[in-house]
Specification:
Elements (H helix, E strand, L loop, with lengths): L1 H8 L10 E3 L7 H10 L8 H15 L5 E11 L5 E11 L4 E8 L1 H12 L6 H12 L8 E8 L3 E3 L4 E3 L2 E6 L4 H15 L3 E3 L5 E4 L8 H4 L13 H5 L7 H4 L8
Parallel strand pairs: 1-3, 4-5
Antiparallel strand pairs: 2-3, 3-4, 5-8, 6-7, 9-10
Helix pairs in contact: 5-6
């Protein structure tokens, strides 16, 4: 079946208890991140993430390889923290202009809010942190002058409600943080989850303790609900771990934040 073959080809394989933190997880909520350590990768049905992956693959095939490199893997081991591996896979690197691109398929409003935050000097958004971690990981192999987000908008085109035309794409350059700032961000993230990871005598993760409540409210903005008469929550729409989340299923109505 076509859909199953697509999902299999794009499957992300991460085993439970791996001592690995990816650049895309730096801005992830603690609960969701710990679920990742506990369960490994969970591959869901065809959705927006799949569409994003297909766009990545299409660009990889279409762009001239003498100028653009795609899906580049980098890693650094943090010996001071249980030999954790910090990893990242760059979507696209422009050799001539020395730009790292991260491709995002999202709505126009996400771009608009991020652009406004950058203009106000707020550099804490997940997307900014992710790109800066990519730069840090690849510093020995790539010369980088610019970090850019390539937004492809799901709601681009004519907006009948506002009677205006939204763009189909935008490229947004993001601030480059100092290496010491990036190292501090990574270290703080590792130390925030350390109390919940259980290690054996050989420093392997053997279990994960979960907090009593999910901390993704600030990220998603909705209370989780299983009530079919209500609007689906962001957890239901986007969280990969909703089907194995005890906090989600312990209460039929909502999650106690």
């Amino acid at each position: 079946m076509l859909i199953n073959d697509i999902l299999e080809a794009l499957k992300y394989d991460r085993k439970p208890f791996e001592k690995r933190l990816s650049a895309s997880q730096i801005g992830m909520g603690k609960y969701e991140l710990l679920m990742n350590f506990l369960h490994g990768s969970i591959n869901n049905d065809f959705g927006q993430q799949t569409i994003g992956s297909l766009i990545h693959k299409g660009m990889e095939d279409l762009l001239p390889k003498e100028r653009y490199k795609s899906e580049l893997d980098f890693s650094v081991t943090i010996s001071e923290f249980h030999n954790f591996e910090i990893t990242g896979t760059l979507d696209l690197y422009d050799i001539e202009d020395r730009v790292i691109y991260d491709i995002k398929t999202t709505k126009y409003n996400t771009y608009k809010k991020l652009k406004e935050a950058i203009e106000k000097g707020d550099y804490t958004h997940d997307y900014i942190l992710q790109l800066n971690v990519y730069k840090f990981l690849s510093k020995e192999k790539l010369d980088v002058d610019t970090l850019s987000l390539f937004f492809i908008f799901k709601d681009g085109g004519w907006d009948y409600k506002s009677k205006t035309k939204k763009p189909d794409y935008k490229i947004l350059n993001v601030p480059i943080l100092s290496e010491s700032e990036v190292v501090e961000i990574i270290t703080d993230k590792l130390h925030s989850i350390e109390p919940y990871l259980i290690f054996d005598a050989n420093d392997n993760i053997i279990d994960v303790k979960l907090p009593q409540a999910c901390d993704s409210k600030t990220k998603y903005g909705f209370i989780t609900t299983k009530d079919s008469n209500k609007k689906p929550s962001k957890c239901e729409l986007y969280c990969s771990y909703k089907n194995v989340c005890n906090a989600y299923y312990n209460d039929n109505k909502q999650l106690d934040w």
